[in-house]
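Tokens in:
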């Protein structure tokens, strides 16, 4: 009989373990994957959300995985091929059209409808256009940035300049006065051989009505010729082609080597930190100068997008991923994240609130309303190839290897060769329409 009792105990123990072990097995793990520096503001914001969520939901483990920028895109593509995408996938915004096409992101349109369509319509148009295809929504851009004119007030005053320039002609005139009065450069920008070079050229190109897909047209030639002239006349350092990135230009600015620069709002979280701003005591920000009075500065936008990995099928994991996504994309969540991160919100309601708290961001926030998504005006999935062709042309013109006309004619021919005739015409037309709409 003892063996019967033993068998009974074993059976009961089995039921016990099955019941409680099953409950334990129901604990799910949800991964949020991004390239944000673990020591930075956005990473800390995400970590806090995860900690608070897990306290309220002990049956959920939220992992925040950091992958360096250079490794993230190939990692995402490999994960998509192997069906191992994390539940929450962050991407740099120019990658998003390609990632949607590659099937990386889950269609969240129905989720957005349940959330409230007014939330979606609160996003600036450019960000809606970037993260949706054929009326279907795949991601949210939650933080953005763009380019404006930084200036040192004290240096302009010493040169007898009462306010920052508003047009290209004024930028040239002001730079000449600064060079003569102070012996320093008037204006700095980044023309490095990377996307940063193309990105800094785009405001001059688009504000003049030019297009990346029609570089042999006069609007593009005028834009590049203006920058070449700034270098040739000694108003801008020749080393703009040799800098490692936009941060080098900021160092010139901090050191008083240039009185004005084209740069982005992220610099308030990197090089122009509160203590540096306090030490300098004279930093101002204005809209980028435009070709002529009355024109609008049309800038590209940067920033990151979050979406749900396409292989997220488990209802519990999907629910947790959506809770994170809908929180960080909410007006309040987005405001809090960007205050900590140093970015700009992509929703109008959140932008109004951050402007009241950080007035120095006002020019960036105004430009964000009509800033353009680079892939949609630069050949969609071929944008990286278009961009490399553009920065190569910039470098050739700025170093004197080619005239602006010659460099851009070669670039235009190379860019057309990236597409079929039908593709090229469709993308060319789309770019023209978006640039014209932004200029209104």
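Residues out:
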């Amino acid at each position: 009989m003892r063996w019967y009792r033993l068998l009974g105990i074993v059976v009961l123990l089995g039921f016990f373990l099955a019941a409680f072990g099953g409950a334990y097995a129901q604990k799910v793990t949800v991964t949020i994957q991004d390239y944000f520096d673990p020591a930075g503001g956005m990473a800390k914001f995400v970590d806090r959300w995860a900690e608070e969520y897990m306290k309220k939901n002990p049956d959920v483990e939220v992992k925040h995985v950091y992958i360096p920028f250079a490794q993230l895109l190939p990692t995402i593509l490999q994960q998509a091929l192997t069906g191992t995408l994390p539940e929450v996938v962050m991407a740099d915004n120019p990658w998003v059209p390609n990632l949607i096409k590659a099937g990386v992101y889950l269609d969240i349109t129905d989720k957005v409808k349940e959330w409230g369509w007014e939330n979606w319509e609160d996003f600036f148009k450019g960000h809606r256009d970037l993260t949706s295809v054929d009326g279907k929504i795949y991601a949210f851009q939650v933080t953005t940035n763009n380019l404006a004119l930084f200036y040192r007030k004290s240096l302009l005053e010493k040169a007898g300049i009462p306010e920052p320039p508003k047009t290209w002609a004024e930028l040239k005139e002001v730079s000449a006065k600064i060079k003569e009065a102070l012996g320093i450069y008037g204006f700095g920008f980044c023309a490095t051989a990377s996307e940063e070079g193309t990105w800094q050229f785009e405001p001059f190109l688009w504000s003049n009505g030019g297009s990346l897909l029609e570089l042999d047209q006069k609007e593009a030639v005028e834009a590049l010729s203006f920058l070449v002239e700034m270098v040739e006349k000694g108003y801008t350092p020749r080393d703009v082609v040799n800098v490692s990135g936009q941060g080098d230009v900021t160092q010139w600015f901090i050191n008083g080597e240039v009185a004005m620069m084209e740069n982005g709002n992220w610099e308030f979280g990197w090089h122009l930190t509160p203590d540096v701003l306090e030490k300098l005591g004279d930093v101002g920000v204005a809209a980028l100068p435009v070709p002529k009075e009355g024109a609008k500065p049309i800038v590209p936008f940067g920033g990151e997008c979050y979406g749900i990995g396409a292989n997220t099928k488990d209802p519990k994991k999907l629910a947790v991923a959506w809770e994170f996504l809908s929180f960080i994309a909410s007006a309040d969540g987005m405001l809090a994240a960007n205050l900590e991160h140093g970015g700009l919100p992509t929703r109008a309601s959140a932008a109004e609130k951050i402007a009241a708290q950080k007035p120095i961001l006002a020019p960036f926030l105004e430009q964000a309303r009509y800033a353009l998504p680079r892939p949609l005006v630069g050949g969609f999935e071929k944008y990286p190839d278009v961009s490399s062709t553009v920065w190569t042309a910039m470098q050739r013109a700025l170093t004197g290897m080619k005239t602006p006309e010659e460099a851009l004619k070669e670039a235009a021919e190379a860019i057309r060769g990236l597409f079929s005739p039908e593709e090229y015409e469709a993308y060319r037309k789309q770019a023209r329409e978006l640039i014209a709409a932004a200029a209104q």
